[in-house]
Amino acid sequence: MVTAIVHIKADVDRIPEVAETIAELDGVGEVYSITGEFDLLAMVRVAHYEEIAEVVPGRINKVAGVQSTETHIAFRAYSRHDLDAAFSIGLADAD
Description:
This protein is 31% helix and 32% strand. It is an alpha+beta fold and 95 residues long. It has a four-stranded antiparallel β-sheet with strand order 2-3-1-4.
């Protein structure tokens, strides 16, 4: 599984509609409205790296109201369980 984090700049007056449209696209897991330089953040999950090109420039960038995107590829996923385990190992060593 390949995960991409896509930051999206959208037309201010269309952010809710853009978010809803993107959330319905194949390959998009979640869409969040966010603060800062970008308006939205989409989590894209696909089976193969090449599919990111189908989802981001092929689908997301074509949604009316999307001005631009910036895509980041995740190298590794850490779940809360993994992080809790790592910290508990460190705490056990400190005793």
